[in-house]
Amino acid sequence: MDAAAHRDPANGRSGTPARRRIRPVVLTTAARSMTALFGGYALASAVATLIARLLPVDRADATAWGMNLSFLAYAGVALWCFHEPRVARVMLLVWGGTAALVLALYLLGMRP
Question: In the structure, what pLDDT confidence band is assigned to residue 109 with cuts at 50, 70 and 90?
Answer without folding.
Answer: confident
